[in-house]
Amino acid sequence: MRYALSAVALALLTACGQPSDTTKTQDTLMTETQAAHPFTYPVTNKGDVVDSYFEEKVADPYRWLEDDRSSETGNWVKEQNKVTFAYLDQISYRDQIKQRLEALWNYEKVGAPFIEGEYTYFFKNDGLQNQSVLYRKKGDSEAEVFLDPNTFSTDATTSLADVSFSDDGKTLAYSISEGGSDWRKIIIIDTETKKPIEETLVDVKFSGVSWKGNEGFYYSSYDKPEGSELSAKTDQHKLYYHKLGTAQKDDPVVFGGVDAEKHRYVGGGVTEDGKYLIVSAADATSGNKVFLKDLTKADSAFVTLYAEGNADFEFVDSRGDALYFVTNLNAPNKKLIKIDATAPAADQWTDVIPETANVLDVSKGAGFLFANYMVDAISQVKQYDYDGKLVRDVALPGLGTVSGFAGKTKDSTMYYSFTNYNTAPSTFAFEPKSGETSTYYKAAVKFNSDDYESKQVFYTSKDGTKVPMMITHKKGIKLDGSNPTMLYGYGGFNVSLTPAFSVANLVWMEMGGVYAVPNLRGGGEYGKAWHNAGIQLKKQNVFDDFIAAGEYLIAEKYTSSNKLAIRGGSNGGLLVGAVMTQRPDLVKVAIPQVGVLDMLRYHTFTAGAGWAYDYGTSEQSKEMYDYIKGYSPVHNVKEGVSYPATLVTTGDHDDRVVPAHSFKFAAELQAKATGPNPQMIRIETNAGHGAGVPVSKQIELAADIFGFTLFNMGVKELPKQ
The Peptidase S9 prolyl oligopeptidase catalytic domain covers which part of the protein (predicted)? Predict the structure, then answer.
């Protein structure tokens, strides 16, 4: 790995974009400003823990920070936040950014309607409500509040995670997340009275709710782990059935209760007609097995549809005994297949929508199938019948990201949302029989989208691979290397970054910033081959793609190293941590959020072992251990290196990527980094990995990130609007 610039790399950097005189002056001012506000990091005690990997000894001095229940860790969190917020408080325009965020965020947001029983339901947020509210109406009557998550807790940190109605719409099972945790509770209510009808189900994790008619539902969970429920390992997922009127302790295990059925992720769903239960079982985030149970026959056994588990199968719909799945088996860009439940052998499967050059996703509703293709990360939608006959190409409002086109067979209208980087999400009604589209809801954000432009470029990565990137900014900016630029990335787990609107990003661009998003290898933008090009012993490709994106922005004079920030969350936090430790010279600011940063131990926490398809583990081989250790951010912070100004962010209730990753990384940076750049960590209390975060906390975090970034780029005051 590289920690110092070679002569060739230094020559390339100076050729690509030397700081202008203006930038040099601003950097001088920044250093003087920081000198006027000295700070001292809290003392982080070092332990003597040493692990052995293939006969190599590796010290882990901050292992004690993994204990999220200890008072020592709690005190460390408090002291770190004191220092961080004291630093942030000195940024004169931080409140100004927050106020602008609040002003633009304050617009009504309405979701697509859906029908359950005699009511039409929809989510709405008046503007700055911490959580969106579920409303309903019957016929032409006035809408009423049905479920208001803002009342679930005094600080709005308990969120609504999922809603699932019984077939007749008379009973609702909804799940809540407290403090952002992945552990959920399921509350069951009568939809007429809105009152609970039985005891709340507890200790539910990584689960949907799928009803069997009106009598009960299927859900998934793990046995409660020993030790901390926020960090202890969970590895045997089980599918349960809850019959209304019975106690949770009596819920039978439907799948996953024996060693032969042991999997890390198990989920079950009932077909719309109630005839079959489809079970998916997986040990990693890529690939799954599929099983089928006939619910019309008492005590029917599971039938195996796919046992290898080395490809992805996603159930779409059924028609009688015909089962429709999207799969990447022998089709890296995915295809839609049909399986006969009465003759499920693989040699009897038929293609309904064949694989093409573009990645496929399929939804259903109103008696049709909707194929959503990703073409260079842009949506295209085609309507098909169940025989695979093309009905029409769906005309979309523009170039961007489409989601929706999902509903029940009896629905007559489909709804979808459309967005891109400079278009707020609006909802459209689509008539499947005629193909007509009308605007159902148009977002009224107080900005002029015509003032901004977004374009896609293709740049060359280190090994010659062409990588797409979307660059969005105000029209008319000067390409003189002086623009503050936020480079955001992910690059993993087959996740695709498609154009999407964000109030926070709009504020960034309002302030003269450039927002750039490359579609790195490891993602799913170009199918399974693109994903596999950025995993395990090819993970460095992802980092190289991100580095090359930064170099492109500098070479094309969008920005300079002194005005470039990198940001990413979760796997994207790993991306930022790896790039800033490999190329600390490339960027001025680094924002690793809820990152996977200790790569030697990630698989020992919660369900982390399920990420091994993307990462490999430090235990599987000497080759993999050496490779992982070579980029693991916690293990590659070096003494005496001047790292970018860094703001690590995490939540103390994050049980997806435990906060110990961020704690250890911050401690290493504070102990070893030299130079004028701050190494800070911002720890949100009573918050998890990101889902369900109250709007007020989202705004505060964005203001802190933007304030920290601009301040460390030498910005003295915000540009006048």
Answer: 500-710
